[in-house]
C-alpha cells in the first residue's frame, strides 16, 4: 500500500495526537487510579518530561540520512506500543518508574521524526505543512474531549486502553510506503551531530529565540486554569478557552501557506514574539471572559506562528544535512526543556504574584524579539 506524502503525514499526526490528547491531560488520572500519592505522580510526570527531552535529543540525532526516518518511525511506534502494553501488568513502583523512563525515551522522538519527514517533504516537493499539521491539533481536541466522557463512563482504566488503541493505530499507520520516497542522494552529507550544530552562532540564536517564545507558555500550561478559577470562571468555560485557542491554531495552520508562505523565519518569529508580549501582558490584567476569548485567539500567533517559523527555518534556511539534528534540538530544547524549566520558575512565582506571573512570561517575548530580528539563514559552504 502506498500513500501520498500529504496523506501519510496527515494520518501520522492524527494518530500521534490522538494518543497525546489522552496522555497529556489524563495520564495523571490513570496513575492516581494505581493508588499513587500526588507527590509520586508529580515525580513520575517530571521524570517523563525530562526523559522525553533526552529521547528527542539523543535518539533522533542518531538518524544520519532522510532514508532512515520512516524505518525509525515504524520501529519506535512498535516499541512504544509494546512498552505501553507493559502498563497492563500488576504494577509496582519500580516497574512503573522503569516503564515510564523507557516509554518516554522512545515515545518522544516520534514527534521530531515526523516533523523531520514533513520538513524534508516541504523542501523536496513543496507540501503545505500547515494543512498537514492541523490534523494533529484537531485530533488532540477531539480526543481530549472524548476522554473526559470515557473516563466518566469507565473510570481511569479507560485511559490506558484508549491509549493502547491509538498506539496500535499509529504503528499500523507507519507501515504503508510514501509515493515520494525520502532521498538524500548518494553525494549528500550525513546529518550533522547535534553537539556540532550547537557550535554555530546562527543556530544558537534560532534555538534561544524559540526557547524564549515556547518557554513563555509555561505559566499558561501550568497555572492558567487555577488562576482563571480564582476569577470565578467555571471549569467548563476554562475548557472552552483552551479549546478555542486550539481552534485558532488549526485556522492558522490551514491558511499558513497562503498568508506566510513567502515569509522568512525571522519575520515569523518576530511577529510571534510581539504577540507573546501582548498576550501575556493582557492575560495578567484580564478579568472578564470576553477579554480572555480575545487573548486566547493569540495562541495562533504565540505558538502556531512561532512553530511555523521554526519549520520554515529548518526546511528552507538550513543546509539539508543540518535538518534532522536541528529538528531534534528544537524539539528537546524549545518544546520540552525550556517549558519544563520555566514551569519550575513560575511554580514559585505564582504563589507570590498570582496572575501577575504572566508579566514574567511577557518579558520573555521582549527577549525573543531582540533575538528573532537577527535570526539568519545558514548557507551551504561553497
From TrEMBL:
Localization terms from the record: Cell inner membrane
Membrane topology, as annotated: Multi-pass membrane protein
Protein name per Swiss-Prot or TrEMBL: PPP family 3-phenylpropionic acid transporter
GO molecular function: lactose binding; lactose:proton symporter activity
PANTHER family registered for this protein in UniProt: 3-PHENYLPROPIONIC ACID TRANSPORTER-RELATED (PTHR23522:SF10), BLL5896 PROTEIN (PTHR23522)
Native species: Gallaecimonas pentaromativorans
Pfam families membership: MFS_1_like (PF12832)
Limits of the Major facilitator superfamily (MFS) profile domain: 165-382
GO cellular component: plasma membrane
Gene3D superfamilies, alphabetized: MFS general substrate transporter like domains
Lineage, uppermost ranks: Bacteria, Pseudomonadati, Pseudomonadota, Gammaproteobacteria, Enterobacterales
Amino acid at each position: 500500500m502506498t500513500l501520498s506524502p500529504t496523506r501519510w503525514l496527515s494520518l501520522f499526526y492524527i494518530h500521534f495526537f490522538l494518543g497525546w490528547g489522552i496522555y497529556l491531560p489524563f495520564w495523571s488520572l490513570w496513575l492516581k487510579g494505581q493508588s499513587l500519592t500526588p507527590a509520586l505522580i508529580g515525580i513520575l510526570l517530571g521524570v517523563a518530561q525530562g526523559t522525553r527531552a533526552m529521547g528527542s535529543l539523543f535518539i533522533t540525532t542518531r538518524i544520519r540520512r532522510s532514508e532512515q526516518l520512516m524505518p525509525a518511525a515504524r520501529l519506535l511506534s512498535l516499541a512504544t506500543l509494546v512498552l505501553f502494553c507493559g502498563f497492563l501488568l500488576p504494577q509496582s513502583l519500580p516497574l512503573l518508574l522503569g516503564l515510564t523512563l523507557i516509554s518516554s525515551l522512545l515515545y518522544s522522538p516520534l514527534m521530531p521524526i515526523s516533523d523531520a519527514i514533513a520538513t524534508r517533504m516541504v523542501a523536496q516537493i513543496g507540501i503545505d505543512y500547515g494543512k498537514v499539521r492541523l490534523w494533529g491539533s484537531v485530533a488532540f481536541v477531539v480526543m481530549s474531549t472524548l476522554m473526559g466522557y470515557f473516563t466518566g463512563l469507565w473510570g481511569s482504566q479507560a485511559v490506558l486502553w484508549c491509549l493502547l488503541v491509538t498506539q496500535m493505530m499509529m504503528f499500523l499507520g507507519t507501515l504503508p510506503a510514501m509515493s515520494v520516497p525520502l532521498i538524500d542522494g548518494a553525494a549528500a552529507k550525513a546529518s550533522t551531530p547535534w553537539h556540532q550544530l550547537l557550535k554555530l552562532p546562527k543556530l544558537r540564536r534560532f534555538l534561544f529565540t524559540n526557547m524564549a517564545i515556547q518557554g513563555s507558555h509555561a505559566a499558561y500550561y501550568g497555572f492558567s486554569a487555577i488562576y482563571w478559577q480564582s476569577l470565578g470562571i467555571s471549569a467548563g468555560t476554562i475548557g472552552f478557552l483552551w479549546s478555542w485557542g486550539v481552534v485558532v491554531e488549526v485556522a492558522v495552520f490551514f491558511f499558513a501557506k497562503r498568508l506566510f508562505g513567502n515569509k522568512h523565519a525571522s519575520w515569523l518569529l518576530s511577529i510571534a514574539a510581539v504577540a507573546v508580549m501582548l498576550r501575556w501582558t493582557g492575560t495578567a490584567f484580564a478579568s472578564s471572559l470576553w477579554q480572555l476569548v480575545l487573548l486566547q485567539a493569540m495562541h495562533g500567533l504565540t505558538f502556531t506562528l512561532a512553530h511555523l517559523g521554526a519549520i520554515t527555518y529548518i526546511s528552507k534556511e538550513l543546509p539539508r544535512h543540518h535538518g534532522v539534528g536541528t529538528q531534534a534540538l528544537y524539539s528537546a530544547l524549545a518544546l520540552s526543556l525550556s517549558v519544563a524549566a520555566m514551569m519550575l520558575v513560575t511554580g514559585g512565582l505564582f504563589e507570590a504574584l498570582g496572575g501577575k506571573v504572566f508579566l514574567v512570561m511577557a518579558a520573555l517575548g521582549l527577549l525573543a524579539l531582540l533575538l528573532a530580528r537577527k535570526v539568519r539563514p545558514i548557507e551551504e559552504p561553497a
